[in-house]
Amino acid sequence: MRSQLNAAKTCAIGENSDSNDQRCFDGIERNKGITNLKRIGTIASILVLASSLAGSAAAADGILLKDEAGKAGENYCHMKFPAIDENTLAENRPQLKPPDVNDFYGACDESPTGKDQVMAQRREEQYRFQSDYED
After folding, report:
1. Do 100 and 83 contact (CB within 8 A), yes or no?
2. Taking CA atoms, which of 10, 30, 49, 86 is between 20 and 30 Å from 55?
3. What is the predicted pLDDT for the residue at 41?
4. Rg of the chain over CA atoms, in angstroms?
């Protein structure tokens, strides 16, 4: 309470009306409101970060969606998973590129970084290169 009175006196230097003191107290209250908003913003940011980490942990194998599309006993699925980064297609351990998504229909045991996917994406990359740069 003493610091609020000192702040009020500091705000009302040279003026002797009670309205100035009230205005200074209102300023202190506004600062408390801003502090509370900053805390809420920080908490919201932490929650968004935690939920994004939880979401990436849920898709640790790289498969974003997996639905069995065939009859019982058939090995046929609809899957969505991130595309492979073009810079790592030639490496032994290709890395996934999260914003780009492949929509795949085929065997349920398909891996996003498996041999078939690497070969398919290499062919796609060669096709794009030929259509962009060769006549």
Report:
1. yes
2. 86
3. 76
4. 30
